[in-house]
# Entry
Amino acid sequence: GALIYVSWTLGFVAKLYFSSGLDPGGRCLALFLVAVTKLGDIGAFAAGTLTARRPGGNHKLVPTLSPKKSWEGLAGGVAASLAGALLFVHCGREHFLLDGVPVLTYGNAAFFGVLFPLLGLIGDLAESALKRAAGVKDSGRIPGLGGVLDVLDSLILVAPALSALQGAGER
# Structure
């Protein structure tokens, strides 16, 4: 079940990558998805780590599943993701064309900049629940990062969501 959960959902990154044939639009959209999602992860980590050092710490989201996740980290993740999404559009809007149609505007980049870290958090918490159920701390051994799933968990829901929204825009 877990293999299907991970491979099917992450397969949408490849679907986006190849969605525009030889045009760069699909590749740029796949890069946008990964970069903006991971910027959210980095922003959440940085904000959560900084605010945890305050007297009294920060405000935990779901301490039973993921004791280090905080509301402050989520806010930092949304801010970083939103800034990255808008920067992508500003610097390369002409590269986000599928079949000659623009698919990334400031408006939908802002939407994705907020949506990606929220979906990423849900994917992260779902992976944490799977690890807790299995009685393990990490999903493998990547020094400093945990395991493969610990790195990819935020993309698990983001990839199918962007693919679905991109597909809905084609109709």
